[in-house]
UniProtKB/TrEMBL annotation:
Protein name: Ribosomal RNA small subunit methyltransferase C
Residue intervals of the Methyltransferase small domain: 172-336
Gene name of the encoded protein: rsmC
Group of enzyme by EC: transferase
Superkingdom per UniProt: Bacteria
Family, per entry: Belongs to the methyltransferase superfamily. RsmC family.
Length: 340
């Protein structure tokens, strides 16, 4: 049984497409197929917006790997292997950025699950050149195409959505890139959390910062706090940084795979924790966040999170802290609080 995801398995069936090529791999890649692919082509470069995946793949000396919201490295890549992302807007962003980088004449292979909307590549790629499906297996599709037109220049700034939010007497401007949680809209769970928060002090971590909505509002309402914001997603980090800048606020924004790069002396950890990984529901990150939180809080530290009411988080919080209070609740969301 292959350890590869289904999109990688369908790519593995079509290795002839990659022979002699300098391959740039991007998108929703989740396994080590690029390392095997290196044996069948001239070179492999991986560009990922997922910090957890980057930490894994960068350990390989056989492929070059880059983490970020924009691929700005010099490259000799002549074929793009795009793993179709779950958000169509993110696919469009990636395509525009990478086609502008690789230029006219480059080839493209797109793989992904049919339920993720990969068929959209047919229309999305039409401005660049022809693309066709050449294989289908395991509910996935394999497309090959070639860029025959000169791609338009790419400017990341053009891709930010910008909107204003007012809450508790404070107004902020939110900036977000495609594929980021709260892209273009205010999540009702985050709103409930902000309405429930006590006054904050000391070092505050906004875990899973997304577009920076929580962090920006917390800094506005509590200007004395030392704000830190982390996320696993490079688009989220770029968005949070842009949101802080748009509001004249300061904070440290950084990549972290759960607690991999955080400090361990927070007065508050505040989060609207993610529970999706790609198209799947995945509780691992949130459960680790909650279970290990006491280790990253100072002696008086507190945890406050919002979660969908159906998620069984209170027992995890109770086990790690010895206490868990529900501060607020609607039919859909609950605000949980714990202290050391």
């Amino acid at each position: 049984m292959s350890a590869y995801t289904a999109p990688s398995q369908i790519a593995q069936r079509q290795l002839d497409y990659f022979k002699g090529k300098h391959v740039l791999v991007a998108g929703e890649i989740e396994d080590t197929f690029p390392i095997e692919l290196r044996q069948h082509c001239q070179s492999v470069t991986v560009f990922t917006s997922n910090y957890a995946y980057f930490r894994q793949i960068q350990q390989s000396e056989q492929v070059k790997s880059y983490f970020g919201a924009e691929f700005d490295q010099a490259t000799q890549a002549d074929l793009l292997l795009l793993y179709w992302p779950k958000a169509k807007a993110e696919a469009n962003y990636l395509l525009s950025m990478l086609m502008a980088k690789l230029g006219q004449g480059c080839e493209i292979v797109v793989v992904g699950e049919n339920r993720s909307g990969i068929k959209s590549i047919e229309k999305m790629f039409s401005d660049y050149g022809p693309i066709n499906k050449y294989d289908s297996a395991r509910r996935c599709s394999f497309y090959w195409g070639q860029c025959e037109q000169t791609p338009a220049p790419f400017t990341q700034q053009d891709w930010f959505a910008s909107y204003q939010l007012t809450l508790n007497g404070h107004t902020i401007t939110v900036k977000s890139l495609p594929g980021v949680f709260s892209h273009g809209e205010f999540d009702l769970g985050s709103k409930l959390l902000l309405e429930t928060l006590p006054s904050l002090s000391g070092k505050v971590l906004d875990f899973g910062c997304g577009a920076g909505v929580l962090g920006a509002f917390m800094a506005k309402a509590n200007p004395e706090i030392s704000l830190e914001m982390c996320d696993i997603n490079a688009y989220a980090l770029a968005s949070s940084q842009a949101t802080l800048q748009a509001n004249g606020l300061e904070g440290r924004v950084f990549a972290s795979d759960i607690y991999s790069d955080t400090a361990s002396d927070y007065r508050f950890i505040i989060s609207n924790p993610p529970f999706h990984s790609g198209l799947e529901t995945n509780y691992n990150a949130a459960e680790t966040l909650l279970g290990k939180a006491p280790q990253y809080l100072n002696a008086n530290g507190e945890l406050l999170i919002v979660a969908n009411s159906f998620l069984r988080y209170p027992p995890i919080i109770e086990q790690s802290f010895g206490n868990c209070a529900t501060l607020n609740k609607t039919s859909k969301f609950a605000i949980y609080h714990a202290h050391k």
